[in-house]
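Morning run. Coffee first, then this:
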Amino acid sequence: MTMRILFVLTITMLLTAAALAETGVALTVYNDNLALVRDTRPMMFKKGLGQVMFRDVAAQIDPTSVHFKSAGVDMLEQNFDYDLVSSEKLLQKYVDQTLEVVTKGGDVVRGTLMTAAAGNPAQFVLKQADGSLRSILVENAAEIRYPNLPDGLITKPTLRWLVNSDAGSEKETEVSYLTGGISWRADYVMLLNDANTRTDLDAWVTLDNNSGADYNNAQLKLIAGEIHRAPTPQPRYAKGMMDMALSAEAGRGFEERSFFEYHLYTLQRPTDVLDRQTKQVSLFPSTSANVRKVYTYDWQQDNDNVAVSTEFENKETNGLGMALPAGRVRVYQKAPDGGQEFIGEDNINHTPKNEKLTVRIGKAFDIAAERAQKDYRRISDRVSETDIEVKIRNHKTEKVNIIVVDHLYGYWEILRESLPHKKVSAQKIEFTLAVEPEQEAILTYTVRNR
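And here it is:
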């Protein structure tokens, strides 16, 4: 792990210290399937050397990331036990031990297990008290009774430590670790008005927990941004262990602030994040903003289709002015019958405040476009000229302005043009073409390439 990651995670741990005093668990979730768990709980230690178990950790924990802190206690060794109990493992552990099998016919067979579900069809063999052997098909077994849980099998992933304590007493213990299996994304809902000039905007955090652990009454924090992670070879475990020396209450949603080179969102109340659960929480209160509809014809991207987008400024003067984390935007529009209809969706990147945001919705049905290369001239071995013609036909009832995009290569210059162009970058130019209802507008230009 790089120094940058260590710095970020260290600061995150410090920021969550106050919250842990109330909730016991703090959970910081990152965009890229990563979370930092910080768990404070009382634990009993005996004086001197002893073994303690820290249960209910995430199944996808990275054991190499564990940080242990308890006053007067030194951790000498750590084992991550993840050999979880299952019917197959129980049978394997009970070979040469006594158990009972209840058949579907009601017979109770007691004996020493000789084989664990071997053969085809699968069966196990019991040696009875009189020395006789009895073979039972697995499919005929209604119940298997085990006297106890064998050593080495556990019901939940567990950290097992060898520690040295200065006193035999209960101590507050703080453990933090990284785990996979948890991620979050932002989901936005836009509702456009009839004139496509204003939108309502709702934002939700969608949290997916498949880490193998529940986080009850947790202080939830989200990091928006792309952290750098050092590639690490996947560890090889042996013998089941690794040895090492939906809606927010008013005023109680997420608080956003800058943090290092990212943005930190802190939920202002504890919440439960359960395993195998998708949870949604309001990111910020519903707001409204001015928007404008934009038509774009980029023949290299959309062939002969005109794309439709909405643009708005992420500024306080426009009802926004906040860091918008990356996510999916679903766009709806109010329908004539008073309802609303889904009209498209797009993904957005992390967007700082005071930046323009473009949401691509779909393709215009009533606007036709075509582009043609009218002529090509080879001036010399290194110089050529191309005449381009773009036709836009507007079958709507109102005038539209179309942004015509072209991508150029090498050293180029526009020799002639029917409308002035805008140079967006070294390889991209734009024209704005106004088209009246039921009319056709034509754009022509000549490009010289060297």
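Residues 286-363 form one domain. Good start to the day.
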